[in-house]
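Recap from last week: sequence in, structure out.
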Amino acid sequence: SNQSNHHAYSDEESKNTNADVSDARGDTAESGNINDDCSVVSSISQTLFNLRPDRTIVFCILILILGAAASAAFIFVGVSSVHEKENEYFNNRASETVSNIDFAWKRYETTGLYVHETCREGCSRRKFREVYEYIASTGLEFQVISYNPNTTTEERPALEEESRTFYEHYYPDLINYTGVKGLEPDPEQEGSLKVQDRSEQPFYFPVHYLEPVEGNVGAIDFDLHSSASRRVTINTALSTWKPALTPRLRLVQETEEDIYSVILMHPGVPLSTQPDLQPKDFSSVGIRTPDLLKLATKSQSQNSIVHIYDSTEEAPVSLCGATVPV
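Predicted structure tokens:
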């Protein structure tokens, strides 16, 4: 029994000893793992320390790239904003100019109506001069205003005599009056027309009363009905009781090259007091394109270059342009 107990004790002690050994081995293994982890951390730290200068360069490059991108974005936004403002400013100025041109045309129409009303029941040279001075005082730009009476063949000699007497008295050194003129076949160039003494016609529309005389000598008693394009405009105005505009043309009195004009013809208006009244004569305003554009852009605060086109043609036709200095 004692021996058995001794063996049991020995076995138990052996177990305890083995357990202690196992625990010691476990402690040793755990200690080894800790040392390995410390070595890895130390290695990583050393690697990071060694790479730190490269990382600094990378960060600097990234900062430069981001800064450049931000600057480019800022400049793009700024330039886009400037372009938008410039476009908006241009569109506003263009709309304003178009409105001013429209307003200028209405002023020309009113002027034509005023001239017609003054002369429709008879006029005199003195009266017409006064009308011109009233109109000119408003600042309206035009080449010429005129009244063009429907003159028959029988009335032509008296009209020519009145003109000859007036111009010989008031403009003896300026005008060599020879009578009513018009576009007639040029004898020196077949198929062409030339301004010369007007052949006999059933009726004429001579530019009889006109102002200013200076600068418009070539238009004195010029028969507007002798020109095909003017003839179409005359017929339109007289058949509709509405002002009509010629296509672009060069006035016979124009002295500058490449300058186009139009003629606004006004037949007057129908009157309730004269229900049987029919349009017979018409007034006209000769308008040079540069004068029109200068009038329409005179309120501009910057220099402008403006062109105007006739959109009623199949292909829009340039009526010329003008540089408008401030």
